[in-house]
């Protein structure tokens, strides 16, 4: 659609998605439009994956570099066949165990997928989202749906319909609002075309879960924050998840981390900056005394990283609303979902890491 046009806002009950609203959104997709929709990870910005013109609209709306491929979303297992050149046996194993869910499989692509979707690569990322609204929409459209996260390129991914509107109102045809995304970080991108299955981006399905099915799993160095020359998920090389304030991640033993953050709060405030802190339930009391940050986000509990993941992107966006110049985030343990959380934090901090 032309920039400045009206974006339809469709509020849908995720438990019983109203069929007439789903059909309306599906019609827009069928006509080559772009529609934002909820998935269990983050909101996606969808278009017909088989229509190059429609897919180009996604890139334009987001301001996304054209060398960054999109994930193709499907709603039934048999939809995979047409999209891939062949299906390695371990792909079937993973699909049975983790689909629908937050796992994207990078597979050899077939001819039906336009180059614009895969950014010219000979592979395609495919996933089956678990969200009932996403599934209903894909089914109603009877199409594979190409969809990146529904944010302006470089911004934190959207976990609510309002986040999408904030970034893309007037630039897309519709937003289907099915409530907050529950996982909160994107899918795990797993390359099955490598000799050893390789995590290109950690996400909602953990390394430990994949290893329990596959035995051997590698992690691309770029996904661990090591400055790899050539990350294999093209998206990993771009500025990412960045709020307007500058994010710093503070690592180390937890008492030292809170002490260091409190000292930094005082230092930055003395210089006249507004400072936000991203803390956890366990550490929040440390910031509820002087020096108080201008804004405090309590992400969740260290013993339940899923609660932290669910709130992370909204917290980064909240820091913008509170006009934080500096955002100090506590590191968390890099196990389970912690790997994906730390990957997103490091990226939002553009690798500004402080060791306490
Ligand atoms: O959870 C998610 O994956 C969300 C929801 C909407 O499904 N989508 C999402 O898409 O996060 P996006 O475009 O923001 O991130 C896709 C990532 C990028 O880093 C991209 O480079 C990588 O997946 N990717 C996609 N296709 C690829 C391929 N064929 N080979 C390697 N990396 C690929
Ligand atoms: Mg994204």
TrEMBL record:
YrdC-like domain sequence ranges: 19-205
This enzyme's EC code(s): 2.7.7.87
Annotated L-threonine binding sites: 41, 68, 73, 127, 147, 187
GO BP field: regulation of translational fidelity; tRNA processing
Subcellular location per the Swiss-Prot or TrEMBL entry: Cytoplasm
Gene Ontology molecular function: ATP binding; double-stranded RNA binding; L-threonylcarbamoyladenylate synthase; tRNA binding
Entry GO CC: cytoplasm
Residue sites binding ATP per the record: 64, 123, 149, 157, 201, 241
Ranges in coiled-coil conformation: none
Pfam families: Sua5_C, Sua5_yciO_yrdC
Function: Required for the formation of a threonylcarbamoyl group on adenosine at position 37 (t(6)A37) in tRNAs that read codons beginning with adenine.
Sequence similarity: Belongs to the SUA5 family.
NCBIfam families recorded: L-threonylcarbamoyladenylate synthase
Protein name listed in UniProt: Threonylcarbamoyl-AMP synthase
Organism listed in the record: Neomoorella humiferrea
